[in-house]
Input
Amino acid sequence: MSNPHPIQIEGGHTMDTLRTPAEAIQRVLCDRVIEACAVTMFQKLDAPVDVIVDRLAAYTFAQLVQIEGKDAAARMLRDIAQQIEDGALDASERGKGN
Output
């Protein structure tokens, strides 16, 4: 089910925006790799979920700063935080979002 309030990122796209079937496939494959890594951290390293989320977030934010610069990254994260506060993840909390 599509989120009624998808998180928007630079360029007016949303996290749900897929322009081509190839992008959809690439997104699914990336999600599977990330999930496999998280499962490995949990099962093989006995890492608690909060540590896994912390490490994934730290990696994501570091890459965002490297690619976009500190100011643009901070602006993007503030925008995402505001969208979450405005209900972008409400469907996920009910178990219906991606």
Summary: The chain is about 65% helix and 0% strand. The longest helix spans residues 21-43. The two ends are 8 Å apart (CA to CA).
